[in-house]
Amino acid sequence: MRDPEVISTDGLSKRFGERIAVEELTLAVPAGEIVGLLGPNGAGKTTTLRMLAGILAPTSGTALVDGLDPAKEPERVHESIGFLTESPGFYERLSAERNLTYFAAFYGGVDAHAAARNGIEQMGLAGRGGDKVGTFSKGMKQRLALARVLLHEPRILFLDEPTAGLDPEAARNLRELIVSLKKEGRTILLSTHNLTEAEELCDRIAVFRTRLVAIDTPGALRDRQFERRLRVRLASMTEDWLAALRAEPFVRSVERGTDGALDVRLADPDRDRPRLVTRIVEMGGQILEVREVERSLEDVYLSLIEEATE
Amino acid sequence: MRRRIWNVVHMEWAGIAATPSSLLFLAVIPALLVGQAVFLSWIVPRFVNPAILGAGAGDADTLRLLILKQFPFFVLLIPAMIANVFATLSIVEEKVTRTLEPLLATPVRTWELLVGKIVAGAVPALLVAWASAVLFAAVGFGLGWGPLLRTLFTPTFFLSMFLLMPAVSLMSFVIGVIGSSRASDAKAAQNLAVVIIFPIFALIAVQVTGLVAFTPLRTLFLSLVLLAADGLLLRAAVRLFARESIVTRWK
Ligand SMILES: Nc1ncnc2c1ncn2[C@@H]1O[C@H](COP(=O)(O)OP(=O)(O)OP(=O)(O)O)[C@@H](O)[C@H]1O
Ligand SMILES: [Mg+2]
């Protein structure tokens, strides 16, 4: 068995003077999982990642990363993590390759030159390695920053908004890279404002606003936040049918939407769906469409954040 | 540990080499300093009557020697100045380009980073100072001031060059580090450092200008005191280079 939790926090908190940035965060991430940190600007995502990476000391609470406390033994934690910082940060007067070699040479057992060349190629910057970083575009710097994070092949990755500034193709390549990193067994905690990306990549999503609002799989968050509904479109429709459907024990409610379609809540959506269809057909209804109302992760997120604000 | 320190040193040097202005800065200093000292000691005795020095000062050489004697004081200033500028620029640049945070996410220790920066700044600074002294001697002997210079190159002079000067430049460097760790921009950092360094320069000035006799023993003692203070300041600098404030407080 792999060790159950690679990243865990217990009541992790950080205040800056009067302002509380992170409050009582308790979280556990098992090996090989990708967890997404979602939250509005200023929610404390970057602060959390910095505490886990041993760059900020927590005000209270503890964290364990790979079995080590980043506040007590930051350098040992750094051996096994890669931290993609919010802003890329390079020595702009020096070449991309020289920059990467510098960072690579801090890790024990890493051939800095080979790792640097490798990283440049892997991130699609081949041919630009000798150019000064100052001549790079924003997205190119971001890719170089990702190469830097992977130089020592860390088992744990903290990625602060990894696809920020990338073009659609580069963003997709990066998502594919993240998936392949997960397949290699790496554990990844990433923050993002891109909800589609979070849903595509993350095993679990932590919605966060100073405090942890909810953490679960995207599907479970959706079910928890929104009752499942069916949308039923009929060729024609009478008030009697509406009343008859409402009288059925397995129907919780039926509303008629502005477009004339029915919005139906069932006692048990999976079990009762065929019954509903049968009943409508029995009444002589001509069904054009029955489908489940899709709630986007955005709806789920916004509703969770709204609840947290109240 | 050594590998990480050398890594920092090499990177600092690559940075200096990639900046023509800092190379120029390094090259111009000895030329300027020696040129000025030689020019003054050549021109002043020609136009100023040595008699203004009062009784006992009979000839041009006495006046010339008086001017030449100021030279060690200026040489002492070079590495201190260079060290301070390099320290502030190096740290301020890390903050401005935001390289410090990714750097602190690597296994490098704060003290390794600072020691690397100190070595990287101290080596060119001391080399430039020593080169100035050699150039000064060469030009001086070339102009036929050998006997004068010989009275200048005393054990005290060599103690100052090889012990006092490193001690002073180390202090200047560490103070630069502390200044730029705490200050919120480059200018404030350098101003702060200058304010703290000034008393040290005053002390040296007093010694060199002869208000206090500059004996080998005193020079040795002063150097050792400064080196001890350097050690303490370096420890303070490592602590003040608190990862936290540097990563987040900087605008
Ligand atoms: N050094 C600091 N001093 C004071 N307050 C700080 C400091 N660093 C962060 N904060 C505050 O902590 C809170 C959380 O900031 P943080 O950068 O973690 O947010 P975030 O979730 O990463 O936001 P974003 O999505 O905009 O990146 C904010 O209110 C911010 O103002
Ligand atoms: Mg952030």
Care to describe what's here?
The complex is a heterodimer of chains A (310) and B (251). Chain A folds into 2 domains: 5-224, Rossmann fold, CATH 3.40.50.300; 227-294, Alpha-Beta Plaits (2-Layer Sandwich). Chain A has helices at residues 45-52, 74-80, 96-104, 112-122, 138-150, 168-183, 195-201, 218-225, 239-247, 269-282, 297-309, and strands at 5-16, 19-30, 34-38, 60-65, 81-84, 156-160, 187-191, 204-209, 211-216, 230-234, 251-256, 262-266, 287-292. Chain A contains 11 helices and 13 strands. The radius of gyration of chain A is 25 Å and the shape is elongated. In chain A, helix 3 crosses helix 4 and helix 4 packs across helix 5. Chain A has 310 residues and is of the alpha/beta class. The model of chain A has no long low-confidence stretch (mean pLDDT 90). A 6-stranded mixed β-sheet of chain A has the order 5-6-7-3-8-9, with helices on both faces. In chain A, strands 11-12-10-13 form a 4-stranded antiparallel β-sheet, covered by helices on one side. The longest helix of chain A has 16 residues, at 168-183. Chain B is mainly alpha-helical and 251 residues long. Helices cover 82% and strands 0% of the residues of chain B. Chain B contains 11 helices and no strands. Chain B is elongated and about 65 Å long. The two termini of chain B are 31 Å apart. The model of chain B has no long low-confidence stretch (mean pLDDT 80). Chain A binds chain B through residues 16, 50, 53-57, 74-76, 78-79, 81-83, 85, 87-94, 98, 102-103, 105-108, 145, 148, and chain B through 3-4, 7, 11, 14-15, 18-19, 97-109, 243-244, 247-248. Bound molecules: adenosine-5'-triphosphate (ATP) and magnesium ion.
